[in-house]
């Protein structure tokens, strides 16, 4: 009976150590996953800010180019003065 108690104790201790090891591995993997997700989010935010800044610069440049290329309105000619004594036909 003493051997049976020892083997049960050994089995339960081995099971406990295996569970502890799995938990430690799971926690380590979760930490790595969260660190990667945080880094990915930071990179995405940085790239988005760069893209928005680039788009705004392109929009301003396009507005400036359109303004420069827009044809200037022609000056209207003053109506020709009719000579005195001549009637309009």
Written overview of the protein:
The chain is mainly alpha-helical and 89 residues long. It has a domain at 17-66. The chain is 76% helix and 0% strand. The chain is built from 1 helix and no strands. It has one helix at 2-69.
In short:
The chain is an all-alpha fold and 89 residues long. 76% of the residues lie in helices and 0% in strands.
- State the separation between the terminal residues, measured CA to CA: 136 Å
Biggest β-sheet description: none
Q: How many runs of DSSP E, i.e. beta strands?
A: 0
Q: Helix proportion of residues, in percent?
A: over 70%
Q: Strand fraction band?
A: under 5%
Low-confidence stretches: none
Radius of gyration of CA atoms, rounded to a whole number: 42 Å
pLDDT averaged residue by residue: 88
Structural class of the helices, strands and pairings? Answer: mainly alpha
- The shape, in one word, is rod-shaped
Number of helices: 1
- Spell the H/E element sequence: H
